[in-house]
Write a structure and sequence with these properties.
It is built from eight helices and twelve strands. A seven-stranded mixed beta sheet has the order 6-5-4-3-2-1-12. The protein has helices spanning about 60-65, 75-80, 115-120, 130-135, 140-150, 200-205, 215-230, 240-245; strands spanning about 10-15, 40-45, 50-55, 90, 110-115, 155, 160-165, 165-170, 180-185, 190-195, 235, 260. The longest helix has 14 residues, at about 215-230. The chain has a single domain (about 10-260), classed as 4-Layer Sandwich (Metallo-beta-lactamase, Chain A), CATH 3.60.15. A hairpin with an 8-residue loop joins β8 and β9. By secondary structure, the protein is an alpha/beta fold. The N and C termini lie far apart (about 35 Å).
Length: about 270
């Protein structure tokens, strides 16, 4: 059996939505008394001589069209980490919602890893329904189809190893084809949950996020996250502002921009 590579893992913040009513983040009894915000991240993984980017965010035109804020294009955040998007060879797309797959054209050399079911979902019968379609952007979906016809998509059907110590795992729930990323680090197995759990309370209190394809799969997905990770402290939710507070900044210059996830949290 090949020994897993030890990876470095980073969360890079590119946008924020500081005030959301509790009902926008939780189904059922609300564990918060007041508003709870969301942060928007892309993730960077380095190890075994390779660089991986997990999700690629959205750009300013999409932010303006949807009335959302944006601090910087995610590729600018990657540049601050010494990564040139144009040279990246592997991108993992956890799912194709508008805030996760909006910059395909800025990664021209990348192989793009996606679940079979996510492409099926975004181009199939469920997109007849506005309730499901609203979280997708047609231009983004078309960019993925273009990448497919350019032989750039790598499809995964369930759980799959990408490299020693790096794998994707099907979860579903939030979308039909949501996948998460499991990474071996110096502190053990870290799981980038993406939108399998937007916030810590979604998975810790069993309160699902309300944008959902299948609630049952989402709740079972919370259990799978725990099984995949070395501990609950090793699961990184996809949009929780606490990630920036719990983990140390990469450097003083990158405080509030990028944190390290391959080290123990400080809070």
């Amino acid at each position: 059996m090949t020994e897993p590579h030890v990876h470095e893992v980073f969360a890079i913040k590119y946008a924020a939505m500081p005030d959301r009513a509790p009902w926008m983040n939780f189904i059922g009894i609300d564990p918060h008394e007041g508003p709870s915000g969301l942060d928007f991240y892309v993730w960077l993984i380095r190890g075994g001589g390779r660089t991986w980017v997990v999700d690629i965010g959205y750009d300013r035109p999409v932010a303006e069209r949807r009335g959302r804020s944006i601090i910087r294009n995610p590729v600018e955040g990657l540049q601050l980490m010494g990564v040139d998007a144009a040279a990246v060879e592997d991108v993992v797309i956890t799912h194709m919602h508008w805030d996760h797959v909006g910059n395909v054209g800025l990664f021209p050399k990348a192989r793009i890893h996606v679940q079979d079911k996510e492409m099926q979902y975004t181009t199939g019968r469920y997109m007849q329904h506005a309730a499901f379609r609203a979280a997708y952007d047609l231009d983004h979906v078309l960019s993925m189809v273009t990448a497919l016809y350019g032989n750039r998509l790598v499809f995964h059907d369930g759980d799959d190893e990408l490299a020693p110590g790096l794998s994707v795992h099907f979860i579903g729930g939030h979308t039909m084809g949501l996948q998460v990323v499991r990474v071996w680090t110096r502190r053990g197995w870290v799981v980038l949950a993406s939108d399998a759990s937007h916030l810590y309370p979604n998975m810790e209190l069993g309160r699902p996020f309300p944008i959902v394809f299948n609630v049952g799969e989402m709740l079972e997905g919370h259990k799978k996250l725990q099984r995949l990770a070395s501990s609950g402290r090793h699961v990184i939710p996809g949009h929780d502002p606490d990630v920036m507070r719990r983990y140390p900044a990469v450097s003083k210059e990158l405080e509030g921009i990028a944190v390290r996830l391959d080290v123990e949290p400080t809070a």
